Amino acid sequence: MRKKVIAGNWKMYKTQAEASEFLQKFLHSLEETPDDREIVLCVPFTDLGILSKSLHGSRVQLGAQNVHWEEQGAYTGEISGPMLTEIGVRYVIIGHSERRQYFNETDETVNLRLKAAQLYGLTPILCVGESKQQRDALETESLIISQLAKGLVDVDQNNLIIAYEPIWAIGTGDTCESIEANRVIGLIRSQLTNANVPIQYGGSVKANNIDEIMAQPEIDGALVGGASLEPDSFARIVNYQ
Ligand SMILES: O=C(CO)COP(=O)(O)O
């Protein structure tokens, strides 16, 4: 059985005060949550300390949204693996399309970050996915195969999560049809050497479509943006049927 993982990606949202307010409401909603799923919150760096304390003893794991490949050094604005693990971070998102688009992230830097995350004891969540233009040009399959081939060089597939996030479905309310997401995730799985890597879907996952998404046989979880910011909607998502 592949592990199911529901992760929230808070992106650049929530001050510490807002994060604490969220948790007060959200943690109550987990009393009935089945044990078959891992719950992760990938939050801004400034929220990690307070969440590390508040999540202690809960079943929610802590995640970050970036990690540098060096242990330390003159890399202004970056953060290292040991800095994250020291405060209890277990997961890290790598290669999100927003980093690829706005921060010059390439398949090569994604690969360096993935290997460093594993070296320092983090589980990376590697994001792949095509733009609308690439989908319209029938390049979805070749793009994803290339992102995986370049990103996964020398990466240990025993400590890895992949998220399929079609860029056109992110923040648009325009969810990828669950059957199509299932098909692309099957393609991703066919490119891996370890059939047990959990593969998530991300892109306009909401309380009202999570059940259908999770009913697909290839989909092992969700990477949730906007709907993870509100305690009630994220609670409904982690409590998917
Ligand atoms: O980018 C995403 C998660 O990483 C998806 O964001 P939305 O759920 O807001 O579409």
UniProtKB/TrEMBL annotation:
What EC numbers are recorded for this enzyme?
5.3.1.1
Taxonomically, the superkingdom here is Bacteria
Catalytic site positions: 96 (electrophile), 165 (proton acceptor)
Q: Where along the chain is substrate bound?
A: 9-11, 171, 204, 225-226
Reactions catalysed according to its record: D-glyceraldehyde 3-phosphate = dihydroxyacetone phosphate
UniProt keyword list: Cytoplasm, Gluconeogenesis, Glycolysis, Isomerase
* Pathway listed: Carbohydrate degradation; glycolysis; D-glyceraldehyde 3-phosphate from glycerone phosphate: step 1/1; Carbohydrate biosynthesis; gluconeogenesis
Family per similarity comment = Belongs to the triosephosphate isomerase family.
This protein's assembly is summarised as: Homodimer.
Stated role:
Involved in the gluconeogenesis. Catalyzes stereospecifically the conversion of dihydroxyacetone phosphate (DHAP) to D-glyceraldehyde-3-phosphate (G3P).
Protein name, as recorded: Triosephosphate isomerase
- Give the source species: Floridaenema fluviatile BLCC-F154
